[in-house]
Amino acid sequence: MADTPLLSVLMPVFNSERFIAEAIESILNQTFKDFEFLILDDASTDKSFEIINDFENKDSHIKVFQNEKNLGVVESRNKLINLSQGKYITWLDSDDIALKTRFEEEIKFLENHPEIGLVGANTIIIDENSEKIGIWLFETEPQKLKIELFFHSPFLSSSVMIRKSCLPQNFYDPRFPVAEDFDLYSKISEHSDAANIPKFLVKYRINSKGLSKSNIEKMEQLAFQVIKEHAERLGIKLEENTIKHLRKPKTASKIAFEDITEIEKSLILLKYLLLENDHFDKKAVDEVIQKYWFETCRKSTHNGLKILKIFFRSPLFCKKLSLKDNCRLFVRALIKF
To answer: What's the rounded Cα separation, in Å, for the pair 114 and 98?
Structure first.
């Protein structure tokens, strides 16, 4: 490893004794080796700090730090960024797993695409026993990702690598606990492009100590504010009710018939505002808005065939859907699925 590494790998840890060893080993087993590995224990009360110290004694990449008291993920992440020396920074949550070529693939991508400030990747979802239970496929095109950020965060933190020069001045904003990543990615996207590599490079663990109901509600409230402020910085004014309806095609499992008109109005308004703004590509706007209109109607097919009439007659329908998607929508509406 060079005196100044190309990459800084950052891992805040709090009470992760069950999974921390597997997470650390996945970093040390990377095919790319020019990195420093900074681990910050956030005053854990289990054996996490002992496990981390054992690894530090075995591998020179690792530097261990410890907070005297629990500061939370935002302050811990900002502390790690200030300690880092690399041209690029990347994260891995202490219960997730990086696949062996992740760093190699992402470094290569950023070195070959200087306009990209942030890159992520597709994700394998695993359970507490490291068994695969699903996948997440993310949008890859930079112009579409700029628009996706008005609906949700289209990146997974444990897959993200960031060009350090593209970080906002104050890094993670403490006003957005449990939505700090969404806010950071939104700010980076305002001044540089972002992308996802269409490969599976990380395993994300779903565990029983995940977000509580209250934290999920808090995350949703903070997501509203992130989108609102992101839009304002780009000269776009979105009311809270509009944002609420824009979120539904992504977050709701089913959409009530009475909500469809309001979602349609919100999508039409967003499309108009984005097309009036030089920051966004027209083709990308058309395709992403069309996708969320399709998702709105797909999640409303339990209301029957009348959904098809609403879908096809809407000004949001761009006639760019595949025959497969059209058939899927028809069948779902026919059986009221």
So the answer is: 24
The values of phi and psi at residue 202, to 5°, are -150, 155
Residues 183-240: tens digit of each pLDDT: 999 999 999 999 999 999 999 999 766 554 557 788 899 999 999 999 999 999 999 9
- Nearest 5 degrees, angle CA 178-CA 179-CA 183? 150
Compute the distance between CA of residue 277 and CA of residue 283 in angstroms, rounded to an integer: 13
pTM here? 0.93
- In a 13 Å sphere around the CA of 72, the CA atoms on its Cβ side amount to 11
- DSSP assignment letter at 243: H
3-state SS, residue 11: strand
User: Looking at domain 7-205, does it have CATH number 3.40.50.1820?
Assistant: no
Residues 6+ apart with CB under 8 A from 274: 147, 150, 236, 280, 285, 289
What would the pLDDT profile of 13-27 be if each residue is shown by its tens digit?
Answer: 999 999 999 999 999
- CB-CB contact of 103 with 33 (8 Å): no
Per-residue model confidence (pLDDT) at position 333: 86
Residue burial 260-291, b: 16+ Cβ < 10 Å; e: rest: beebbebbebbbebbeeeeebbeebbbbbbbb
Backbone angles phi, psi at 126, to 5 degrees: -125, 160
Residue 178 in this model has a pLDDT that exceeds 70: yes
The domain limits of the chain are: 7-205, 235-334
Span 149-165, pLDDT tens digits: 999 999 999 999 999 99
